[in-house]
Amino acid sequence: MTDLRPVPLFHIAFYQFTRLEDVDAMIDCVRALTAELRGSVLLAPEGINGMVAGTAANLDAFEAALLAMPPFGGMPFKRSECKTVPFSRMKVRRKKEIVPLGITGVDVTAGTGINVSPAEWRELIRQEDVVLLDNRNSFEFRLGRFHNAIDPGVRSFRDFPEYVQAHVVDWKAKGKRVAMYCTGGIRCEKTTAWMREFDIPVYQLEGGILNYFKELPDAERDWEGECFVFDNRIALDTSLQETSTTLEDVYQGEPDGEWRLNRARRLDGDAD
User: Fold this and answer.
1) 182 noted as active-site residue
2) What is the rounded distance in angstroms from the CA atom of residue 79 to the CA atom of residue 118?
3) Of these residues, 29, 182, 188, 227, which one is catalytic?
4) CB-CB contact of 206 with 116 (8 Å)
5) Predicted confidence (pLDDT) per residue in 55-91, tens digit
6) Residue 218, CB-side half-sphere exposure with 13 Å CA sphere
7) Are residues 80 and 129 in the same domain?
8) What are the residues facing 110 on neighbouring strands?
9) Where are the strands (E) in 114-260, listed by range?
10) SS3 content of the chain, % helix, strand, coil (to 5)
11) CB of 154 within 8 A of CB of 163?
12) 219 lies in the same domain as 258
């Protein structure tokens, strides 16, 4: 008897900062590997950043093929099951950076902040000398956040350095340490690499919010609300399950909400 049940779909997110000598050749290769998938993959001289969806078998083959390439050996993948089809098409594109901080010359491969596991993060953010920064956009913060986190009030990742520069002298004078988090970790990698020049202890949540939800079954102890994701699922709870949140819920009241809403509907957003 034929099984007519739909094949389960899964979503994976991944990134790796690594020097790519021939980005165009890598784009051709990744396009071939993603023929049976849907999503978005960005490649730049500084590495790869992607989120794609497909069946478990197709994703297994894709991951194995990428990991077999020397630049991407050891790259972690975050996988979650989908109820909603996350993407309608597949895009593989070349960019100047896989995540644009707005500051030139930041070399993540030269070093970043201190990576903290989810279990260690839980203890770190309870320390009185720690400034807990949400390294995401304000609309993401509003939807969900760690308890006692600070919203830098930015509309774009490129605005984040300005907030840091305005406060870092005061943090250092008060003997503070900085802990920051983002959805999957990539924004924090770029930011902490740049912040090394300020000579202040900076920590980043390993694997970001999604890894925290995956590793800690009681993540709701430290998290309030939901986590925005850049695909058709829109938001996940601490069990990595889709919620009923709509795009209108996310962007309503934002100064550039209408633009973001139209952009999201076209799925032109890039991976975190």
Assistant:
1) yes
2) 17
3) 182
4) yes
5) 999 999 999 999 999 999 999 999 999 999 999 999 9
6) 3
7) no
8) none
9) 114-116, 130-134, 144-146, 177-181, 202-205, 223-225, 227-228, 235-236
10) 35, 25, 40
11) yes
12) yes
